[in-house]
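User: Fold this; tokens only.

Assistant: Input:
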Amino acid sequence: MTGYDPMSLSIEMPEVEFGEAADLGEEAIYYRHFKPVILWKLQNWIGVGLERKMKILFSVSIKCLRRSYLQEERRYAAGKERHQWTR
């Protein structure tokens, strides 16, 4: 999805931060549809429950996207061809 290779096919089976963040974010957004708006906004303001995890997930997602972008910029600076989606 981002063009970043998390080395998920390696033998060591590293933890894939972006995949876990996307899964948990999807769950939190799903529960927002059933909770009253005032409740999840209050939880977000206080920083508890899934709303606390959403703040963490947002920072993880930004970190992964930044890493992917920098990897692509380094590839371009080295003279290699860019991905099709960056043309």
